[in-house]
Write a structure and sequence with these properties.
single chain, about 375 residues, alpha/beta, Cytidine Deaminase, domain 2, Dihydrofolate Reductase, subunit A, elongated, EC 1.1.1.193, 5-amino-6-(5-phosphoribosylamino)uracil reductase activity
Length: about 375
């Protein structure tokens, strides 16, 4: 069993190498073992390319016969961008297949393992399943809901402020924390801020990782009145990543056409109900294959997403500074709640040091409260 854990751990390590390049497909790693030794490895390197199992089988060649395959996700059983992996596994005469989790994709859902068993190949599922689910949390959410996995991110002071009373916010978090968040951007398909953040900070919202040619997410601005300045850095870098401005009926045709003239896509979602507008936007993004969304906006946008029950994960960076001031902005604005019993409940799964800061990772508890069915 100890060796099996090592092999599956290696498969998960390999899967991680595809981070940022496989979307909206999952991260998958594969290890072929024979006579107690690893004979070949593979991982899903990019969307549309060969899957992890195929890379490993090609590397092993004829040696794959009689081997055991350790793979972080159930082998596919359908024709998509590539042929079914389970057919290749059977043709290579692999003796046993061990996967971490089954694939909830409606086109698979156990059919891959069933196909292998029908051909006399021993299968098992569940080894390091918790780690595998965490690794593929974006894919698992997207494939089962059809909407992007939403990560809400906040950087704040010890006393819970995201800016001074004058609006200054650069920089609350440390260089190390900001570098870490650029690594997060590299993993997400889209990034969102509100118009308030655009007007106050003029952000670029691209990925900047030293020595790495990172992936730039699609940049989305919630801007009901189409106030995004055409001389903003978003448009000065329009060649680096697309910009989507989400407007409402409050924006005039002329304002929207001006934004289009500098390269923006204008997406009009009417209505005063911000929650309904967010849900509609997430549905639209999902239909476009956008599997993940990083929300980096201010307190108003954060409040809207939490109230809409649209947050799957929350990252909070706490810097060792005190800002003070009753008028200083906080991470979640809006009207708040009148009773603590109605507070949105989260489970903290990790707290770690990043430079001088503390990074907290939390997931919502699903219960009824003012902020939605958490």
């Amino acid at each position: 069993m100890e060796n099996e854990l090592q092999y599956m751990t290696r498969a998960l390590e390999l899967a991680e190498l595809g981070r940022g390049a496989t979307s909206p497909n999952p991260l998958v790693g594969a290890v072929l073992v024979k006579n107690g030794k690893i004979i070949a490895e593979g991982y899903h390197q990019k969307y549309g390319g060969p899957h992890a199992e195929i890379h490993a089988l090609h590397a092993a060649g004829k040696e794959a016969e009689g081997s055991t395959l350790y793979v972080s996700l159930e082998p596919c059983s359908h024709y998509g961008k590539t042929p079914p992996c389970c057919e290749a596994i059977a043709e290579a005469k692999v003796q046993r297949v061990v996967c971490a989790i089954s694939d909830p994709n409606p086109l698979v859902q156990g059919r891959g393992l069933a196909y292998l068993r029908e051909r006399g190949i021993e299968t098992s599922c569940g080894l390091l399943s918790e780690q595998a689910r965490k690794q593929n949390e974006i894919f698992l959410h997207f494939i089962t809901t059809g909407t992007p996995f939403v990560l809400l991110k906040t950087a704040m002071s010890l006393d819970g402020k995201i800016a001074t009373s004058t609006g200054e916010s650069r920089w609350i978090s440390s260089v190390e924390s900001r570098s870490y968040m650029h690594q997060i951007r590299n993993k997400y398909s889209a990034i969102m801020v509100g118009i308030g953040t655009v007007l106050a900070d003029d952000p670029v919202l691209t990925t900047r990782i030293e020595g790495v040619d990172g992936h730039n997410p699609i940049r989305i601005v919630m801007d009901s009145k189409a106030r995004t300045p055409i001389n903003s850095r978003l448009f000065k870098t329009i060649g680096d990543a697309p910009v989507i401005i989400v407007t409402s009926e409050q924006a005039s045709f002329t304002q929207e056409e001006t934004l289009r003239s500098v390269g923006a896509e204008v997406l009009k979602i009417p209505g005063d109900d911000q929650g309904k507008r967010i849900r509609e936007l997430l549905t639209i993004l999902g239909k476009r294959g956008i599997d993940s969304l990083l929300v980096e906006g201010g307190g108003t946008l954060a409040d809207s997403f939490i109230r809409t029950r649209a947050v799957q994960k929350y990252l909070v960076c706490i810097a060792p500074i005190v800002i003070g001031g009753k008028d200083a902005l906080t991470p979640v604005e809006g009207n708040g709640i009148s009773s603590l019993a109605d507070a949105a409940q989260f489970s903290i799964t990790k707290a770690e040091r990043i430079g001088p800061d503390i990074l907290i990772e939390a997931y919502p508890n699903r219960r009824n409260d003012v902020y939605g069915n958490y």
